[in-house]
Amino acid sequence: MSANLQLDSQGRLVHLLTTEGLPRSLILHILDTAAQFVSVNEREVKKVPLLRGKSIFNVFFENSTRTRTTFEIAAKRLSADVINLNIGSSSTAKGETLLDTVWNLQAMDADMFVVRHAEAGAPHLIARHVKPGVHVVNAGDGRHAHPTQGLLDMYTIRHYKQDFSRLVVAIVGDVLHSRVARSQIHALTTLGVPEVRVVGPKTLLPKDVERLGVRVFHDVAAGLRDCDVVITLRLQNERMSGPLLPSAGEFNKTYGLTPEKLALAKPDAIVMHPGPINRGVEIDSGVADGTHSVIMPQVTFGIAVRMAVMAILAGNDR
Amino acid sequence: MSANLQLDSQGRLVHLLTTEGLPRSLILHILDTAAQFVSVNEREVKKVPLLRGKSIFNVFFENSTRTRTTFEIAAKRLSADVINLNIGSSSTAKGETLLDTVWNLQAMDADMFVVRHAEAGAPHLIARHVKPGVHVVNAGDGRHAHPTQGLLDMYTIRHYKQDFSRLVVAIVGDVLHSRVARSQIHALTTLGVPEVRVVGPKTLLPKDVERLGVRVFHDVAAGLRDCDVVITLRLQNERMSGPLLPSAGEFNKTYGLTPEKLALAKPDAIVMHPGPINRGVEIDSGVADGTHSVIMPQVTFGIAVRMAVMAILAGNDR
Amino acid sequence: MSANLQLDSQGRLVHLLTTEGLPRSLILHILDTAAQFVSVNEREVKKVPLLRGKSIFNVFFENSTRTRTTFEIAAKRLSADVINLNIGSSSTAKGETLLDTVWNLQAMDADMFVVRHAEAGAPHLIARHVKPGVHVVNAGDGRHAHPTQGLLDMYTIRHYKQDFSRLVVAIVGDVLHSRVARSQIHALTTLGVPEVRVVGPKTLLPKDVERLGVRVFHDVAAGLRDCDVVITLRLQNERMSGPLLPSAGEFNKTYGLTPEKLALAKPDAIVMHPGPINRGVEIDSGVADGTHSVIMPQVTFGIAVRMAVMAILAGNDR
Asked: What gap in Å lies between CA C298 and CA B172, rounded to an integer?
């Protein structure tokens, strides 16, 4: 259903809601387009006129300065007009429904909505109700999906490892609460990564996670052994509750990525993290700032991937 | 006085503070100019260079993401540089007076202030103290006026009904607390609408409202009968207090616009609302989303009207 | 150390962190460049393409709408893309460190950071850790420095008095808590002002302030006598505490600048204030709005000085 919603009858991308069901060719098209924008961002004048005269609304029902900033800078480098809306403090407080808010903005001749929402499925709901020619980009919905993060991670892996077809990728930590992990897993399996592992305590892995096509490891040493890519996840303290969950200190001891644990992976392994990192919790500073870390390049590629997604969506109007 | 303040000695618009006393020819000039911007907003590149290099400050002493957004997008489509200031959390908290704040911004070579303030008259006060060539647009002051809303409503009525001279227009609900209603009434009577009605309980109508040239109805059936235009007003829960006022539920029962009540109006009547709507309070979803509703076109025309006002003001410098 | 950090090996400005140690020739170069931007800001189209395609991040760890606005408008008039970040409410709340925040933004291909922080030295820390080609502008750090304010004050003094070499300048009030005063003193002494005075009660002057090359006056009449320039400082109520400090009322009586006290200065003395003013505390309205006051021109020149600093920094990449 999601897949159908984000593609038109000719299979072109009209919304980006999830990496689940996104065709391999489309993912690769996004990555190839992003490669061009990486070079734009290295220029002295980091600006192309592709979205000139377009109105892009960053509609954040859940606050995230960091993610909002990445979309804002991406849109501005495409020459779009960008409007930021923190809706938490706005009309919804006046009793306006989600769809009324969106319909109002759409009536202002919006071209694109970048939506973050605490409820899973909110961007899909919006996508089902906007007019043709208006595009929705999911910037994170509940525990469900964060597709631009998933895609920038694919860009990063391809940049360093070239070929997906022989990789072992381990995703370590709080998979249960992570929309990022879901978006990564769908993209990795679609791109043909033969072994995707999730590594963590039972209490932080979703039940039946194997159904997504991953191998489950509770033992971190086994999970990291001979990996090409180690993805650490943010320990979402603010989303965690309940007596069965480990404390930050306990988590670090067992699953936090230290240089010692990383030594179990392949010598040329790369270490990724969606940020912001909790130093000394899910990742030690020695790893985060070390030679295996590609956390900062992830951020750089993230701008280019978001530019690519927006440019492709806008281009598919014509 | 207000009329003089907003016109220069040649009768040209230099501030937009209220629709009261605004000459008919000027209102029509704004509507005609807005028509051109409606077509700009339907283009692929929704942008004209009219205000390039101008600095427009959205100075909101009362928070309103929604209204601020309409002015921001309008100004950006005119290619202006826009600065948003939520002053509630800023210098006034440091003890700076209203005029000191404005003088400071003026000294930054501001060209235009879009002002919202909880106190009636604040935009007038500012207009009286800015330099020649600096323009003030009232984006809502207390219960007093919201002229761009009034003007976009006139645009909408003209779009659907062409001729003002044979219309019956009913404004239903909380007229007492509504700056929108005041701005509508002044514009409607200036444009020659022969019958403007206000419909609501005594406790929600201003005393002596007849002096504005309207007919008063407490009976909703009589008030709606044979109307061409039904304007519902937001029930401003946040501004209401006191034991004489109806609850939202009571209000809905008596004055809320349902399909049944709407059937009393003319078969081709249009339904308007300044937004955001309270579904099930002043308007039922069956009406808000029904075929008579022009609430979304109001929003679309609102951007064009705000572009027109800003373009006319800036053009009157030369 | 600071001086070395803000200059490259060829003595060109790469960061602006403090006026302390800034060479006289560089200060004059900034003032001369600003003069050109003053005329840009008087044009109908207040815009030059110097920073087109550059990404400037206003990173405010301490809220200041006013100062942020001056940098935002300056950057927009240079055609830069500007991103505003109020970090207080963002990632630092999620446990991200200052440097992680900056490194993340840097990875988005930032060109310049404008930084305000409650801790003295934060902009220096950032400047030490950014990549070559990324520039840091201190927009106020703790009680330490506010160099663009200091420089715009120098611009203002030069505008009205032309020659620094024969001036008597008095800085009156809460020097202890004032980063502005520190930045002024360093700039004034570097520019060769023969007599810089600080005037205030012992409790509001730093110990050993004479070491900065100033004369200390506790008696306001003696301090103001025959001055060419009187700089009043904001009484930073929010930073003051302790039983030894005067109340606002007591302060006004003794040190508040009244027309009577100002009469002790030279007949053509100018009165300055960094804003926002506390009317009736450190300055009376009769002085603030009087013929000696150049407080509004300070604001106007401030935009031009900030444009000059940004343009010089960006130009020094090439």
From this structure: 51
